[in-house]
Amino acid sequence: MGGAARHVAAPVRAPRHRIPRRPVRLMNDQRQFFGHPRGLSTLFFTEMWERFSYYGMRGFLILYMTKALGFTDQHAGLAYGNYVSSVWLTPIIGGFIADRWLGQYRSVLIGGIIIALGHFTLAFHPLPFLYAGLTLIVLGTGLLKPNISTIVGSLYEPGDERRDAGFSIFYMGINLGAFLGPLIAGKLAQGVDWHLGFACAGVGMVFGLIQYVLGRHHLQPGIDRLDAQRRARLAAQTSGGTPQAPLTPEDWRRIGAVVVLFVFASLFWGAYEQAGSTLNLFADRYVHLELLGVTLYASWFVSIQAAFVILLSPIFAWLWVKLGPRQPSSPAKFALALLFVGVAFVLLIPAGSLAQSGVKVSPLWLVAAYFIQELGELCLSPVGLSLVTKLAPVRFVSLVMGIFFLSNAAGNWLAGWSARFISTVPLVTLFGVTAAVTIGAGVVLFLLLRPIRNLMGGVR
Asked: Fewer CB under 10 Å: which end of the chain, C or N?
């Protein structure tokens, strides 16, 4: 009860012209979208289109660098790693900006506009537009990413056990976008023109912005709650009143739990995000790109990866609700995620051996590996988002969410770094080292479950 209650401020009166009786409004909304607040649907589709643009472009970015721009593997891996890690670095700044000035709603809106401009900039041919466009996407994502997740958490009352299930549904929207983006933008980029793929990604972000603005009224309960907290804090500071109490020892212990889980999440993402780097190049160079008579594109494997999440997300959402208090703790789910992603790379070791013997391997090797990876992702990512909203001090929830996203930054940098070795290190070694590190980390995390739960102070 303590952790969930921390996410939503103690009742602050909402503006009368917006929500006369917030509890009634929430109860009326909460059954309108798969048994969850209606605002979840608005955020579901906003994030779906944003991820359509991001993964649609990411699916062919390293291929564009190596094939269209003539980058070496080392150069492309470095550039790719710097970009995707920066995408996850800026949310900590975006979280601070939202908490201090813009608020969550405006931060998401402005961030989406900047992202769309970035993709349209990439549609121009000269090389400088590549770096300008990627920079805009990095800045826009920093504003959008932590704050849209914070709004999701604000839709739920303290102690609402649907929160984890709600984040799993939200995460299904992420992966619906990740499924459609590479299929459509990847086909246009690799099959027609690279820059048409970039433009397609920009159009997707515009669609997301349109429905986000149109669906604002469904978000109003959560927005009002978050804005009231921010205004009250700023009013106390600017009027010379007594500032909010400093963080308590319990607050610091819970933040410590976030930091510990951050380390293990970084290792998970370092393996998982190789889908856009090492495994993307592996698919392009070593996989027989035809299945059942259908010609495949290397970027499409990101869509296959996302398809499994779309299929599995409702099952996991149902499972966590069904298990209720009997479900594994959040740190245990993180440990399971590391084991799953490690096993996926164990499966790729024989595929790498066959590939380096001169045989084009079946795409089913990657399909099977991605299925196992997604079991791990669903144990970690939506659970991690939900956990941060429960552990973070309420006035710093967006900031702590941004800090947690640094695990994605570290992992994506590792994924880009690993791509540098695909042409210089045997594939068996490359896949084997990744498997050993992640499985070992999962075992260590299982051994640390008790002290981590103590830091969390009763939050599961």
From this structure: N
